[in-house]
Known about the structure:
By secondary structure, this protein is mainly beta. It has strands at 3-7, 10-12, 18-25, 34-39, 46-51, 58-60, 68-73, 78-83, 92-98, 101-102, 106-110. The chain is globular, with a radius of gyration of 13 Å.
Amino acid sequence: xxxxxxxxxxxxxxxxxxxxxxxxxxxxxxxxxxxxxxxxxxxxxxxxxxxxxxxxxxxxxxxxxxxxxxxxxxxxxxxxxxxxxxxxxxxxxxxxxxxxxxxxxxxxxxxx
Length: 112
């Protein structure tokens, strides 16, 4: 069955960095675009970044452009979200999305 499992969340100070990983199984990973979404407390889930199946094309929300980088390793069936210069407003549960499925999310808290 299709599974997406996120990891790498945690508590980080403002200005810090984290790298999230999404491990995929149960489908041909290299054939599907992958995305990262986030949902902050009391807010709707929003798209953060997307990457094409081969990794040649990426797209970002305006709020994270220049700070976050999405990437993927197709042989390892992994998608990544490198987050730099983190701000308190980046605090949210981050979800991996692909093949119309969601992971369970990983919590990122940015606080001093």
